[in-house]
Specification:
By secondary structure, this protein is mainly alpha-helical. Helix content is 80%, strand content 0%. It has a single domain (3-157, 176-364), classed as Up-down Bundle (Growth Hormone, Chain: A). Helix 1 (6-14) packs across helix 8, helix 3 runs antiparallel to helix 6 (136-157) and helix 8 runs parallel beside helix 12.
Length: 373
């Protein structure tokens, strides 16, 4: 309901240049970067369920805080807190799916999960666009109540999936960080994270910048713009499972470059468009890339990780979004203020092309053999 419109809200509340507004996302990305590393260790150390509940309740408090924020530093603090809590739920769910599903079924499992999650993503922006065009405060309150309610459902009904052996010793922080150090020595894993990060820079422009870009430059209001993120979610709901059934027949290293190729095309469409329909088409194109690449990439990483280290591998993989979030929006703000409003989108297209090349470089490595669950 709220997240796609946060840049509009902060821009109108603070009345600052685009570079200053987009720099707030850096607070979110820095804390999210740290939290994604910690989240992997936490879900492997304490279990999946409790960490997910902490993340949801913490996020609910953050949304309530936006109601009272009026200064730049207050928004920065809330963005920082949002980045700390957000990864806890995401990494927990990724680890639970890897615990429950054998390697050969994980791509399909992640696609089913994305489909279910996007039912909410489809409804949220439409409701948010209607509510937020009148008052943002009610939207923040509804979002906080929804997150807290979901956290309560998980607390009461979700089963813990982390299995510990009787004689297993809990690792200390040094042991946990050693796992990350070992992961960074895995050339396939590092190239995978780098490739995905470049692709995600394009995604951050669509999810963070496009809403304020469309409203400030072309007068597209929240209530109409909401159909753009909703289209993304509807495509995931109705197309994700079918597309994954097709893509899982092919090696991941051949599938991911194809999906990544849709992202630079979407960037060009935004740059040359000046209307709602042009922006909607760009989202449709990018979503096809997302449908092809996202579950394939997650399964690829899950299959790389030893069973007792999946949380940390998936947590580190989640850093791609936060690195992209620290680079994409802030760079877009500077390019907008110093060159032109289209400059960020052309730069995004160039980065998207580099992403495709990076994914193609994965082909020279031996295919990953999935381990037994």
């Amino acid at each position: 309901m709220v997240w796609p419109f946060l840049t509009i809200y902060t821009s109108e509340k603070l009345l600052l240049p685009m570079a200053a507004v987009t720099s707030l996302m850096t607070f979110n990305s820095v804390s999210g970067f740290v939290a994604s590393i910690a989240a992997g260790s936490l879900v492997d150390y304490f279990g999946r369920k409790g960490i997910m509940v902490v993340g949801l309740f913490g996020s609910a408090v953050v949304y309530l805080g936006y109601i009272f924020a009026v200064d730049y530093w207050q928004f920065g603090l809330l963005m920082f807190a949002s980045g700390m809590f957000g990864p806890l739920y995401r990494v927990g769910t990724d680890a639970i799916l890897a615990d429950m599903v054998p390697p050969e079924g994980r791509a399909q499992a992640y696609s089913l999960f994305r489909m279910g999650r996007n039912v909410g993503v489809a409804l949220g922006p439409i409701l948010g666009g209607l509510v937020l065009s009148r008052t943002y405060n009610i939207g923040f309150m509804i979002a906080a109540i929804a997150l807290a309610s979901f956290g309560l459902i998980i607390l009461l009904f979700l089963r813990e999936t982390l299995q510990r052996q009787e004689n297993a010793k809990r690792e200390n922080l040094r042991d946990q960080l050693r796992v990350l150090s070992q992961a960074l020595k895995n050339k396939v894993f590092v190239r995978m994270v780098g490739s995905f990060t470049l692709m995600e820079i394009c995604a951050t422009l669509m999810w963070v910048i496009l809403a304020v870009y469309a409203k400030q430059n072309y007068g597209i209001q929240e209530s109409r713009y909401s159909w753009i993120p909703t289209t993304n979610a509807l495509m995931v709901i109705f197309l994700q499972v079918g597309i994954t059934r097709i893509t899982q027949k092919y090696p991941e290293t051949k599938v991911m470059p194809v999906g990544a190729a849709f992202y630079p095309v979407a960037m060009i469409l935004v740059a040359i468009s000046g209307s709602f329909w042009g922006f909607l088409l760009a989202m449709v194109v990018m979503t096809f890339g997302e449908l092809i690449t996202a579950p394939t990439a997650t399964a690829f990483v899950a299959n790389l990780a030893p069973p007792d280290q999946r949380g940390r591998y998936l947590g580190f993989f989640g850093l791609a979004w936060y690195v992209a979030l620290s680079v994409g929006p802030m760079s877009a703000g500077f390019l907008t203020d110093s060159i032109s409003i289209q400059a960020p989108w052309y730069a995004g297209a160039l980065i998207g092309v580099v992403s495709v090349a990076a994914f193609l470089s994965l082909r020279k490595f031996e295919p990953v053999k999935a381990e037994a669950a």
